[in-house]
């Protein structure tokens, strides 16, 4: 064993001497063992076992009953930083309370998700806050402050931000590359992480599965070059599950697992989440990496120190537990907070005086989400649930509220007879004798009798719900979903669709005079066996006998009501979730048919969308008098919706992302260049269905008395008055946007720089002030390689949404003027282009650091205003790897022979003449990698 390096400088964490002492006394093998997610205890040093990771996205998840708040995208819709701080406080309090009764509950919480909601087709849209970096960072900062707690030294929980970096696709998520040019990197993706880290309430980050600029995030140089420069505090980097193995197994980025874990550790990964609770594989790889000289003790110590510092901040090494008290759990305050959050998350999209509803209104509640309170993959287990139907009956009276789910009622028949669902009291299920089983306890059970076919008895009537893209669920009369257990048999055994692999979804495939029923979870077909229905490679042909159409029930119910409320949307486990992106913005056809049916039967029809993501519903907007949206709102979603519909609460949620009118408004899912492809409200040039920041109220607000001041050289102060001119108290969300006038480079059409949610009584006014750092006026200057504020005029726009601007004033800001690129002196890094077109992709220059640009087909790069000097240049030199062709401007064509590999760079030189300031165009073909361009002054080159 090599000699132990000197002890690291003293710890900055509470109980830092204890951290230093532990690090000094732990053996090499003990330190390596601490690098896995599940670390063993070291009894001789009094060090307990520990694990990184406890999901807490909108409540403590997976560890039993807890308060469940709205989905993260719904919390983003509140636009309320202070509310998020209070929710974070409640979640951390419950984590501590749950920890007291179950030591499996972790205090290193993996939340929040700050990935920007760039593309609404992303399957994990529900997990992020907004498409805008300012709003996302503000809300994430507030939530992490709540999670951290307000103790002067110790942290109640230690939050880790997910997922570093530029991660917005589930399709090929572990092998796809996000090509992120410097401006997008610095102006968009990094900004969502930077502010929470700088605020001091973040314990670390989790890298994402994907690659950025050709390099897996788990070996990202940005961890060192960006993240760790934002704070003096040690930050813990926890790998995503299985990602260390992906570096070899799926990404093929390294030849051996030893090389992979060594590279990840050197890049800054401190905790390896891989192979579940079995640490032996990762520990073995790390030990062999050490033995092979790929890592040293200093690399190991740096990671161990970061882990121990987090544990110290959590109070583990304190003389007395700083949080040692009987924590209250499921309190009245937490329940009230969950309801408040659900109310604040509701967005009124349109209202032609249909809402709010009179207390005596007869309401028909219809749709697949009408009597549902859905949870998602990262939800906790709610102690109570309130569905829209529950909430409306509670608020308006059960006698005034009727209900039709709108699903088709069907029976299945095959050549052998009718499909029947056994009663759970069947003797084949001995535990089911006596009282009926709790459906929540029987999903996946194998001791229940499977479905069978009877040649004589009538088939069981099933509720068939079509969730879009041909995916459907089937439910027995007692509410249990048809599910497939590990033994392959089909049973009515699930309370709702769920699980990492959903076992409750099917598709119908036409076959002859009937259909094959394909089980989505296994990819196999439902077939009839002697002992019941099971999945197999060959399926049985079924005839679907429709007992009643869902539209018929909706039409009857709608016709007898004063107002119809259609509840439509998604199930968070189906068609858009982790591992699965959506393919369309459109509402599932069956649900679209329901609102059309309701509208035909009763013109007073409102559509309430309950979903994890936006939909394109231009027809509904045109035809219906009222539309609302809310994310799945946690345990009090139904009660909150009823209070908003009744006018007890005036809606004030605001859209945290653009709602587009059609799929054609979207770029490709893997196109991360928001500037070049004009993505999000920042750059989108079309007409959205509903703009970013949109949301209506039952009150009316005026804005006036705008005043802009410069209290100092670093700040702009914007003040204005908001008045509630309506007859009721309500919240308003004034928003401040910035727009450069006549910018020299492409800049956002509007950029959010301030927001606040305020409450105003009828007739009340409030003077609102936003203080904006002048740095917010800046952009990433690719020519200079740094942040730059360009001098010139800027519009400051105040309004109720990004499209509803009420006040504006132009301010001239002193700053840097445009300057040409000094390419003769400094050359050009290829990835610092101003514009690109064609098949251009930024890739890794080496596995450890640097960027290059690769071109397939006729990809072209544009570098503006390059200064070649008065005397000009005579040659161009290209640092290239691979094989292909580089065309530099006016006919300078360079053929690059195979260099030996993608990282084997050579410098090639060719005659090239240019002088003065001019644009430079470079075309790439054949897959060549271009890292750098330099020029020889005239008289010195080839």
TrEMBL record:
Protein's name in the database: Glycoside hydrolase family 3 C-terminal domain-containing protein
One Gene Ontology MF term: hydrolase activity
InterPro entries per record: Actin-crosslinking (IPR008999), BXL (IPR044993), Fn3-like (IPR026891), Galactose-bd-like_sf (IPR008979), GH (IPR017853), Glyco_hydro_3_C (IPR002772), Glyco_hydro_3_C_sf (IPR036881), Glyco_hydro_3_N (IPR001764)
A Pfam entry, by short name: Glyco_hydro_3_C
Family stated for the protein in its record: Belongs to the glycosyl hydrolase 3 family.
Domain of life: Bacteria
Domain Fibronectin type III-like: 732-802
UniProt entry keywords in alphabetical sequence: Hydrolase, Signal
């Amino acid at each position: 064993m090599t000699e132990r390096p000197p002890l690291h400088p003293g710890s900055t964490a509470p109980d830092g001497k204890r951290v230093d002492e532990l690090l000094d006394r732990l053996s090499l093998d003990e330190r390596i063992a601490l690098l896995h997610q599940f670390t063993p205890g070291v009894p001789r040093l009094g060090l307990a076992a520990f694990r990184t990771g406890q999901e807490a996205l909108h409540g403590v998840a997976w560890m039993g009953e807890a308060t469940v708040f709205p989905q993260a995208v719904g919390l983003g819709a509140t636009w309320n930083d202070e509310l998020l701080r209070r929710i974070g406080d409640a979640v951390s309090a419950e984590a501590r309370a749950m920890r007291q009764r179950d030591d499996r509950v972790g205090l290193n919480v993996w939340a929040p998700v700050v990935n920007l909601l760039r593309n609404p087709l992303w399957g994990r849209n529900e997990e992020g806050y907004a498409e805008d970096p300012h709003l996302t960072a503000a809300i994430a900062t507030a939530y992490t402050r709540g999670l951290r707690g307000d103790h002067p030294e110790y942290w109640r929980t230690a939050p880790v931000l997910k997922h570093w970096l530029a991660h917005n696709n589930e399709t090929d998520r572990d092998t796809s590359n996000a090509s992120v040019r410097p401006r997008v990197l610095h102006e968009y993706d990094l900004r969502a992480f930077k502010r929470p880290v700088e605020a001091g309430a973040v314990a670390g980050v989790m890298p994402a599965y994907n690659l950025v600029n050709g390099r897996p995030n788990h070996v990202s140089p940005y961890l060192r070059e960006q993240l760790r420069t934002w704070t003096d505090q040690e930050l813990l980097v926890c790998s995503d599950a299985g990602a260390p193995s992906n570096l070899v197994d799926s990404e093929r980025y390294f030849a051996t697992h030893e090389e992979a874990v060594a590279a990840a550790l050197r890049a800054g990964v401190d905790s390896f989440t891989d192979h579940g609770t079995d640490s032996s594989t990762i520990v073995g790889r790390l030990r062999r990496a050490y033995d092979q000289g790929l890592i040293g003790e200093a690399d190991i110590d740096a990671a161990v120190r970061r882990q121990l510092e987090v544990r110290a901040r959590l109070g583990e090494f304190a003389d007395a537990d700083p949080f040692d008290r009987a924590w209250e759990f499921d309190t009245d305050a937490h329940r009230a907070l969950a309801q408040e959050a659900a109310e604040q998350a509701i967005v009124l999209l349109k209202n032609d005086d249909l809402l709010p509803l009179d207390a005596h209104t007869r309401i028909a509640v219809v749709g697949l989400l009408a009597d549902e309170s859905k949870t998602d993959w990262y939800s906790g287990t709610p102690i109570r649930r309130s569905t829209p139907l529950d909430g409306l009956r509670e608020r308006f009276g059960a006698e005034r509220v009727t209900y039709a789910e709108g699903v088709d009622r069907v029976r299945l028949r095959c050549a052998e007879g009718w499909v029947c669902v056994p009663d759970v009291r069947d003797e084949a299920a001995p535990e089911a004798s006596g009282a009926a089983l709790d459906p929540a306890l029987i999903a996946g059970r194998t001791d229940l009798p499977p479905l069978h076919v009877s040649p004589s008895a009538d088939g069981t009537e099933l509720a068939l719900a079509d969730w879009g893209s041909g995916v459907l669920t089937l439910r027995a009369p007692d509410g249990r979903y048809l599910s497939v257990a590990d033994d392959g048999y089909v049973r009515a055994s699930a309370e709702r669709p769920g699980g990492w692999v959903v076992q409750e979804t099917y598709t119908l495939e036409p076959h002859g005079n009937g259909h094959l029923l394909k089980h989505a979870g296994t990819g196999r077909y439902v077939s009839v066996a002697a002992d019941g229905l099971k999945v197999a490679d060959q399926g049985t042909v079924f005839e679907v006998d429709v007992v009643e159409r869902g539209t018929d029930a909706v039409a009857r119910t709608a016709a007898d009501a004063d107002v119809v409320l259609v509840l439509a949307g998604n199930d968070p486990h189906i068609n858009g979730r982790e591992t699965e992106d959506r393919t369309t913005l459109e509402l599932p056809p069956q649900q679209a048919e329901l609102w059309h049916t309701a509208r035909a039967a009763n013109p007073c029809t409102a559509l309430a969308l309950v979903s994890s993501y936006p939909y394109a519903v231009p027809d509904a907007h045109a035809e219906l008098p009222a539309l609302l949206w809310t994310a799945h709102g946690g345990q009090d979603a139904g009660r909150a919706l009823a209070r908003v519909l009744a006018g007890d609460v005036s809606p004030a949620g605001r859209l945290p992302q653009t709602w587009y009118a059609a799929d054609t408004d979207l770029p490709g899912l893997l196109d991360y260049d928001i500037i070049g492809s004009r993505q999000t409200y920042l750059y989108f040039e079309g007409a959205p269905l509903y703009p970013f920041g949109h949301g209506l109220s039952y009150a009316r607000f005026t804005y006036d008395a705008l005043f802009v001041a410069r209290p100092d050289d670093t700040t702009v102060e914007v003040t204005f008055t908001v008045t509630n001119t309506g007859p009721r108290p309500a919240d308003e969300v004034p928003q401040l946007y910035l727009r450069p006038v006549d910018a020299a480079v492409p800049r956002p059409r509007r950029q959010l720089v301030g927001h606040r949610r305020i409450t105003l009584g009828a007739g009340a006014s409030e003077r609102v002030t936003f203080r904006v750092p002048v740095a917010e006026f800046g952009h990433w200057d690719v020519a200079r390689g740094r942040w730059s504020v360009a001098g010139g005029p800027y519009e400051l726009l105040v309004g109720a949404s990004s499209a509803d601007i009420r006040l504006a004033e132009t301010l001239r800001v002193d700053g840097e003027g445009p300057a040409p690129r000094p390419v003769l002196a400094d050359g050009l890094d290829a990835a610092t282009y101003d514009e690109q077109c064609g098949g251009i992709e930024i890739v890794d220059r080496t596995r450890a650091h640097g960027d290059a640009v690769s071109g397939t087909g006729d990809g072209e790069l544009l570098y503006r205003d390059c200064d070649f000097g008065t005397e000009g240049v005579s040659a161009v030199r290209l640092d290239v790897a691979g094989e292909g062709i580089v065309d530099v401007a006016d006919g300078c064509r360079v053929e690059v022979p195979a260099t030996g590999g993608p990282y084997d760079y050579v410098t090639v030189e060719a005659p090239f003449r240019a002088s003065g300031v001019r644009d430079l165009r470079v075309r790439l073909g054949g897959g060549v990698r271009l890292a750098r361009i330099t020029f020889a002054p005239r008289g010195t080159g080839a």
